[in-house]
TrEMBL record:
InterPro entries: AAA+_ATPase, ABC_transporter-like_ATP-bd, ABC_transporter-like_CS, ABC_transporter_ATP-bind, P-loop_NTPase
Ranges of residues in domain ABC transporter: 22-252
SUPFAM superfamilies for the chain: P-loop containing nucleoside triphosphate hydrolases
Molecular function via GO: ATP binding; ATP hydrolysis activity
RNA-binding is among the record's keywords: no
Keywords carried by this UniProt record: ATP-binding, Nucleotide-binding, Transport
Nucleus found in the keyword field: no
Domain of life: Bacteria
Gene3D superfamilies: P-loop containing nucleotide triphosphate hydrolases
Record protein name field: NitT/TauT family transport system ATP-binding protein
Amino acid sequence: MELRTSPADTPAPRTSAPLLDVEHARVGYELDGRLQVAVEDVSFAIHPGEHVMLLGPSGCGKSTLLKTIAGFIEPAGGSIRLNGRTDLSPGPDRAVVFQEFDQLFPWFPVERNLTYPLRVNGRSKADAARIAAEYLDLMGLSHAADRYPHQLSGGMKQRVAIARAMALEPVLLLMDEPFGALDAQTRSRLQRELHEVARSAEATILFVTHSIQEAVYIGHRVVVLGTPPSTVVEILDVAHLSDPAAPEFTDAMRHLRSLLSADDSTAESATFE
Ligand SMILES: Nc1ncnc2c1ncn2[C@@H]1O[C@H](COP(=O)(O)OP(=O)(O)OP(=O)(O)O)[C@@H](O)[C@H]1O
């Protein structure tokens, strides 16, 4: 099988202009007055409607990159442009879904968890209620609209967090291992749901994962990062792969596993599903 790859800093050509353009990004943390570099040199682009997966060993800087794109961290070098703009202070144009189950407002029922950020961002009461109902329905949560977060399973909480983020209709949805804390069965159900919902809503997504299977299933492209301080090892086109039973799907997984294990000598974790 021929795998479609693109050189690390020249993403496959697309007809539209990139929504997000990351060029030679360098990111680190100040410790004792010195910059500890987590991400050395990373370049990739995301076009409207694409789902780009960040895959790499533990500690290689996936979350750091995602937080930089969210505007929580200033890059130390290179450039990150969103719709041509380099001012990336945090805003509702980039909604973030995290791994933790406690990201919902515990004192609000599910419906209010969705309407509250919509109201804060200027939507009228009627609009917020209509949009919340639409996204709760999309994520199969209409029956749980009046429940409080503590009355939900872990999988339901993550579905609410995804519905809330999508309801903001961000230009870019940032997901940091949103299914990482779920049991295997719930995780594959949510992967299927996200696969369907994100494609039908034409959402543009940057998704951090440890799971090779998840990367190939949900992604259009997989950006593989190496050991820290990270650079891009390869960008793999997997847009045509959505059937986990297909031999091409297994071939892509095998290829990614070999890339990751070849680059895994100093990684904190060597396990990739
Ligand atoms: N707030 C912080 N202050 C200082 N160093 C940090 C901070 N957050 C992360 N780091 C360091 O930056 C590096 C990259 O961490 P990051 O969490 O981005 O990696 P990751 O690839 O997302 O890891 P994992 O897959 O285990 O979640 C690590 O060495 C980590 O210890």
